[in-house]
Structures
1.
Amino acid sequence: MSVPSITMSNGLNIPIIGLGTWKSPQGQVEQAVKDAIDAGYRHIDCAFVYGNENEVGDGIAVKIAEGVVKREDLFITSKLWNIFHDPKDVKGAVEKSLNRLKLDYLDLYLIHWPMGYANLDNGETLFPKNEKEEWIFSDVDYVDTWKGFEELVDAGLVKSIGLSNFNSKQIERIISSARIQPAMLQIECHPYLNQKRLIDFCRSKNIAVTAYSPLGSNDRPWAKPEDPQLMDQPKIVRIAEKYGKTPAQILIRYQAQRNVAVIPKSVTKSRIISNFDVFNFELSAEDIEAIDSIDCNGRLCALGWVNHHPHYPFAEEF
C-alpha cells in the first residue's frame, strides 16, 4: 500500500510511519526490519549508538536482494553520536554508519543530541567518563558540527540533514548560520508530552517533525514499576474501544493526523503489522482534543546528564 508522506523543506518526502530501532535487541532486529518491509514500511530509523546498525543493514540487504524493494524505495535515517561532534570526525562517523548499514547514502542524518562528548579513542568509548564517573564533555559547538553536516550533503553521502533533541533556542542558533537549513527535528513526542509549542515553532521555520517514543517507551531502561503506562491511560483506552483499534494504533494515528512522522519500535511481527494498520480510520476533532488534554509535560526521556553540559544545557525551553 502507498503510505502518506511529509514533504520536507528540500522537497524530499519522508514516509509518515517508520520502524524505530532504539532498544531493538541484537539477534532480533534483522528479522524485525524484514517483517516491517514485508508489511509495507519504507522508513527505518537508526542511530550509531543503538549498536544494531549491522543487523538493520542485513535486513535491508535481504529485502533488496529478494526484489521486494529497491534502495530508492526506502527512507533510512541515522544519527551522529555525541563523541563525533568535531567537524573533522563527522564524515568518518557517517561512513561508519553507512558501512554497517551497507548503504551508499542516507536519506536523513541527524545530530543526535546538542551536547558533545570527548572522543577519547577514535570512537571506541561511546560514553566517556572520568574516575569520578563524571561525563567528559567536548567544547565543540554544534553550530560547527552542522557545517560538517552540510559538507555531507555536498559529498552526496546524505540527502537531508536535521536535528534531534534540540530545543527552540538551539534550533535558532543553527538556522542563523546555516547554509543548508535543517529539514527535520526528531523529538520525544506522545500525549504526555505533545510538544505543541515546539512543533508550531518548527512549522514556522519549515522544519518537519518526527516523534520518537510515541507509545510511551515502556521498556526504557530507567522506567520504574510505578510509572504511568500511556497505553493504559483511560482516555486512550476509551478512544481505542470506540474505533475498535488498539491503544498503540490510536497513539500512532494521533501523530499521523498532526502531520508528524512517527517511528514506533517493535521486534514482534504482529505488532509491527498492527502498528502500520492506521490508515483505515480517522480520529475526530473531539478525540484529538481529548488526547491533547492528556499533556502534562511528562518527559519520559528526561535524562539528567543532559543538564550537566557546561556549554549547552538542554534547559526547559520548548
2.
Amino acid sequence: CTPVTEDLIRRRAEHNNLEIFSLEEVSLHQQDIEKIEHIDRWCRELKILYLQSNLIPKIEHVGKLKKLEYLNLALNNIERIENLEGNCFLYFTFRHSALNVLSNSLYEWICLPRLINWLDGKEIGRSERIQSMQGLDAVRQKIREQEQAYLQKRAQEKEEAQRKLQKSQNSISEESNAKQVAAGREESFCEDDKDKEFWEEPCAYTPESRIEAHRHIEEKRKAKEGERNKDKKQKARTLITADGRVLNVNEPKLDFSLSDDEDGNNILLDLSVYRYLDTSLLDVDVQPTYIRVIVKGKIFQLVLPTEVKPDSSIAKRSQTTGHLVVIMPKAQELVKPKVSPVSKSSRAIEASTGNTSKAKGLEKLEVDPRKQSIIDLANIVQEKKTISQGPLKLQCSRLSESIQDIEDFEDSPDIPPLI
C-alpha cells in the first residue's frame, strides 16, 4: 500500500510547478492509498481532491480543508465518515464504494443538511432538506436498528474472509512443499487455471474482497517482474569474452557508419539514434580499442580499427538529423610532408600541358624554386644563333709576335734539316 507522502503530492502537482502550498487541485487516484492523511496540513488551498480507486476505509482529516468543494471517493472501502464539520460547500462522489449504514443515511435521510450540497452528481434541494428534518427522532431510531444489523452482517463477512484467507495460505504452503510434477509450459497453464478460478469464484462485494483482489493483482505483478529480471540475468549478453576479446553488439538495431578521417587523423562514428530521443537517455563510453553507447538501456558496442584517445574524444548530436556523432582522435600521430605552393602550381601546369611524366612515375626535381615561381616554357629549348662571317681579320699583335719569333731563330748545325 502507498502512504500519502509529500513526494507523491509534488509529483502529482506538475501543473502547479511542483508547489503544494498553493495547490487547488490534485489527483491521487489508483495509488493503493489506505488512509487520508497529511493533505489537510500541506494543501490548505485545495478545492478539488480525487481519491477514487483506492483502498480508503473512512473519510478523515479533511475538516481543515475549508475551501474543499469536490471530493471523489468512488471505488473505495468507505465505512465511516468523520471530521466534516468544517466543510460548508462540498460535492461528494461515493459511487460504487462499499458504504455502511452511516454512509447510506446520506442517500436516504441526508443527516448533514448544512455540509453537503451535492451527492453523486445530484444537487440536494430545499425539499430534500426539509424532508430530512421531519421525523428526525424516528429516523435516528431506524438508523440505529439498521446499524446493529449492518454490524452483525459485517462481523460475519469479516469472519468468512478470515477463514478464506487462512485456507488460501494453507493451500499455498502445501503446494510449495509438494513436488512439482509439471514444468515449463504446463506449469504456466496451471497458473492460468488458478488465476481464472480466482476471478470466477463468486464472492460478496466487501472491503475484504476488494483487498483480496488487490493483493492477488500485486502478487501477479511481482511474479512477472521477478520472471523478467530473471530472464534478463540469464540472457545477459556477453560484451567481452573471457580471453579479453571485445565483441560487436547492436541491441537497439540502429544504423551506423564508421569512417576514417585521414586529414584530421580521427575515427568518426555516426550513430542513427532517434531524432526526438532525449540526450539524457544516451550514455557514451569511449575506450582505446572500442566504443560503447547505451541507448535507452540497450547496448551498442563497436570495435575500432585502430587505437584512439578516449580523453580527447568528443560526442555531440546533429541538429538536423539528431544522429549521435563521436569524434575519436587516433593514438598514433600521422606525419605528412608539407607540399609547397610552387610544387602545386607546377603540378597544375603539368596537368594543363598534358605532361605524362607523372603517369610514368617520374618526378621533376625543383632547383631553387624561390627564384622562379613559374616555369618559362619558351626557354626550355634554346635555338642556336647564326653568326655572319665576313673577311678574315688577323690581330696585329698576334702576327707581330710570330714574326719576331722567326727573326730570333738560330739554325743549329747539329740538328738535321726537315725533309
3.
Amino acid sequence: MGSRKHVVMLPLMAHGHLIPFLSLARQIQQRSGFTITIANTPLNIQYLQSTITSPEPNIHLVELPFTGTDHGLPPNTENSENLPLNLIINLFKSSISLITPCQNLIQDIIDKEGQPPLCIISDVFFGWANEVAKRTGTVNVTFTTCGAYGTLAYSSIWLNLPHRHKIDDSGEFNVPGFPDHCRFHVTQLHRFIRNADGSDSWSKYMQTQISMSMKSCGWLCNTVEEVEPLGLQRLRDHVKVPIWSIGPLLPPAVLLMESSSTQSSINRQRAGKIPGISTEECIEWLNSHSSSSVVYISFGSQNTISPSQMMGLAIGLEMAKKPFIWVIRPPIGFNIKGEIKPEWLPEGFEDRMKKSKQGLLVKNWAPQLDILSHNSTGAFLSHCGWNSVLESLSQGVPMIGWPLAAEQAYNSKMLVEEMGVSVELTRGVEGVVEGGEVKTVIDLVMDKNGILGQNMKKKAWEMRGQIRAAVRDDGELKGSSIKALDDFVSAIQYQKINA
C-alpha cells in the first residue's frame, strides 16, 4: 500500500470556481503534506497554470479529455467566461462527459499508489462526483465556492421552486430552510430560475446535481464562521452533514495588507489576467484622492449591464461628483471584450472624467485587490459575486449592491438585511437606472457624517477584523477557519467521515 495521501479536486469550469479551488488546494497541501490533483478540461488547466508563478510540486494539474463542440459550445470554449447566457446550460450539462475521464484518472492513482485517494472534493454543481467516489472506493466532499446563505438560497430555490407555488401579491415568497420572516422576491431570481418549471433543461440539471451533492459525506464552505453564523446554521440544518467553514480563500498577503502600494503580484496570482491598467498607475491615481472618497465599480469577470443602465450609471457618477474607478465593459448584447462605443456614455464623458481626475475608466480588468485595500477607496459598487464580497469585507469596504445573476441577489439580500454593510441600488439588467437614483445612493453610503454611512463603515470594519482573526495561525492561537481546515484534514486522513 502506498503511504502518500492523495486528494482529487473537481472544480466547475468557471473562473470564479477555479481560483478558489486552487487556493483551497494550496491550503490543504500546506497543512497536510498531501498530494493534490486538480482535474479539469484542457483550457481551464492551462488557465490555472498561468496563475502559478513558482513550481508547486505537490499540486498536480491534470487535463481531462473534452471537446466543447460536442456539447453545442463554440470552438475553444471550456468555461463560462464570454459565453452567451443561453449556452451556459450547455456548459453545465457538458460536465457529465467528464465522469469517465475522472474515473480513469482515479483508477490510475489506485494503480500507481495501491490505494484510492483519501477523497474527491467536487464542486457543488458536480453531484455526479458522489457516484464516481463510490465506484472507486473513496468518499466525496462537496465544496461550495459561495457563502452559506447564498448557497442555501440558491440550492433550496432550485430544488423546491417555491415561487411557483406560494407567492403573495407583492411578489414575495418563503424559501425552505429560511425562517418565515425572511422572504424573497421574484425580482431576486434570474430569469432562468424564474421561468423554471421542473421539466426544463436548467431544472433537470440543477435539481439532479444539487440533490446528489446533498448526499456527500461533508461540505466545505468558502466563508467565515463569525461572519455568517446564521447562514451556516441554516445550511447545516438543511444539509445535515458536517460543514467546515474554511474561508476566505484569498491570497494570505491580502489579509495582512494595510494599504496597497507594492502588491501587484497578488492580483496576477489571483486573477491570472492582464489588467487594463498598470497597478502602479492605478495606485498613483488613488494616491491623489483623500481617504475613503473613491467609489470602485465592477460587475465581475463575466457580467455586464444594459446600454440604458450604463448611461444612467455614468450620469449618476458625474452628478455625485465623487471620484470613481469604473471597470467598464460593453453592455449586454455586445461583445464583452469589444470596444466601448461613444453612444453608450454621455457625450464627452470619458474626456471630462479624465481631465477633472474625477473618474478613471478601466477597460477589461482592474487590479481589484489593490484598489479595495487602498485607503482612498470608500465603497464598492458590485454585482455581489461571493469572491468580490469577501475581497471587499476583508478590507473593510462597504458595498452598493447591483446583483445580476447566479446567487448574487441572495448575497446582496444578506449584506443589506443581516450584515448592514450594503445598500442595494437595483438588481438585474431589465430595470431602469436613473442618474439621480445613482447619486442618491452614492451620497448615502459615502456620507461620513451620515448615520447610515458611518454604521456601514463600522460594520464592514468589524467584519474585516473577524475575517483576519479567522485565518490567524500563531502557534496555539488558531482562528476558526484554520481550525476548521485542520479538522477537515484530520477527518479525511483518519477516515472519520463516511459515505
